[in-house]
Amino acid sequence: MATHRVAVLALDGVTPLDLGIPTQIFNSRPETPYEMTVCAPGKKAATTAGFTLVADGDMEQVRAADTVIVPGYDPLVRAPDAVLDILAEARDRGRRVVSICTGAFVLAAAGVLDGLHATTHWKHIDDLERDFPAVTVDRDVLYVDEGDVLTSAGVCCGIDLCLHIVRRDLGAGAANEIARGLVAAPHRDGGQAQYVPAPVPVAGKTSLSDTRGWALHRLDEPLTLPVLARHAGLSQRTFMRRFTEETGTTPLQWLLNARLGKARELLETTDHPIDRVARDCGLGTAANLRLHFRRALDTTPTAYRRAFDRSAAR
Q1: CA-CA distance, 297 to 259, in Å (whole number)?
Q2: 281 exposed, middle or buried (CB, 10 Å; 0-12, 13-18, 19+)?
Q3: For a surface tag, which of 135, 152, 250, 305 has the fewest beta carbons within 10 Å of its beta carbon?
């Protein structure tokens, strides 16, 4: 992948955490092709929570970018028309346009989301649906990938989306390495419904994160629902309910996604035969690995390895 210019657009009132996520993930590193610039309209300054940000770039850098990212800001404030025009132009030229959290309102106002699926923070999702009827709003997802237009749900879901973009561009190995540096999950399953306010847990209830961590180190073993429930010290029925509440997905779907993630990294970083990759990630046989790769990624393990072969790139 050649140098890929990323413009992160800081509008007045930008949410600091939303801004920090893409700047951290797409910051220039020797092992990645990203060249990231924070941009702001006009005088290249933006006011945010308690401080003023002086950006390195302006709207000319946004025009020149391969990927434009709009972090969240006050959805009640309309972005300047000049900004909306530049975003619409970027979309028309086939550039990748991305929003984090309430940044979706800026993309929607620019017409970038018309006819597409999109998401935003759960607190503002009704407003997005009401104000922009040309957009199909997905309520219970962490992010939406529509090819060259991508949107994330609230705040930390921006991490999920940005790592997804790295995974798309450079493969699972690169995304996992960045995630480790952030001490973040390389991939989370489920939707943002798991983060909507819910009744306070009963006393003594603890997270199942220990069991998930235990399972991630044993993906090559036969991890069944009874095995997982026994490790958690719960009945299968209680384990299923608690697991779905915490992750937004079922234990078996979570395991499948984890195993596919491990398979992707093994294909990128080793020359192991396909049948060994299948065994090491817990999918058993090469035929089973091919089946799940086709269903989940619309490709084959061999084609995936070829696409992300780092030795060939060198």
Answers
A1: 13
A2: buried
A3: 250
Buried b (16+ CB within 10 A) or exposed e, 122-161: bebbebbeeebeebebbbebbbbbeebbbbbbbbbbbbbb
Q: Tell me the CATH number at 208.
A: 1.10.10.60
Q: Do 214 and 145 have their domain in common?
A: no
Q: Could you tell me which residues are beta bridge partners of residue 265?
A: none
Nearest CA-CA partner of 179 in 261, 297, 272, 79: 261
* Residues 6 or more apart in contact with residue 276 via CB below 8 angstroms: none
Listed residues 182, 208, 235: the one ending a domain: 182
Check if the beta carbon of residue 65 is closer than 8 Å to that of residue 34. Answer: no
Bridge partner list, 52: 47
172 and 75 co-located in one domain: yes
The strand order across the sheet containing 67-70 reads: 34-39, 4-9, 67-70, 96-99, 149-152, 143-145
> What's the rounded Cα separation, in Å, for the pair 303 and 255?
23
Which pTM does this prediction carry? 0.69
Amino acid letter, residue 72: G
The total number of structural domains in the chain stands at: 2
Render pLDDT for 236-267 as a digit per residue (tens, 0 to 9): 999 999 998 888 789 999 999 899 989 988 99
The DSSP result for 10-30, as a single string, is: --TT--HHHHHHHHHHSS--T
Q: What is the DSSP string of 113-154?
A: TTTSEE---GGGHHHHHHH-TTSEE-SS-SEEE-SSEEEE-S
Domain residues for the domain of 92 are 4-182
**212 and 139 share one domain:** no
CATH code of the domain in which 97 resides: 3.40.50.880
pLDDT tens digits along 17-65: 999 999 999 998 888 999 999 999 876 777 777 788 888 999 999 999 9
- How far apart are the C-alpha atoms of 310 and 314, rounded to whole Å? 6
Secondary structure letter of residue 200 according to DSSP? P
